[in-house]
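dude i think i finally got it to work??
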Amino acid sequence: MDRTCGRSNLDKSQTKVEIRIRRFNPQLEQAPYDSVYILNFYDGMTLHEALDYIYKTLDPTIAFRPYKCDKGICLSCVVSVNGNKQRACTTFVNPGDCLLVEPSDDKYVVRDLVTIL
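look at this
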């Protein structure tokens, strides 16, 4: 499956970010698919804050681990971002970013970004 973010018309001068979440529910017999969200950027925004905003404001059906230690210690928020394993609580988002967020490759997917630790 393609692990690149399909760039929209966003660029670094804009104050928007594109978050593409790879969705998957192993209990349903369907292929993984991407949901795309465009957010307003603010200084200091972390990926976890972006996911939390999406869940609370735009789409309450996404599944991710809402707990965050904010120190990168607990590893409950580890996801793959554009193909690289990262901690959502310590990964900062930049204006114009296009991020493909998916579960970490080495974990069993429960649903969307939630994996068995």
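The CA atoms of residues 15 and 95 lie 5 Å apart.
im so relieved honestly
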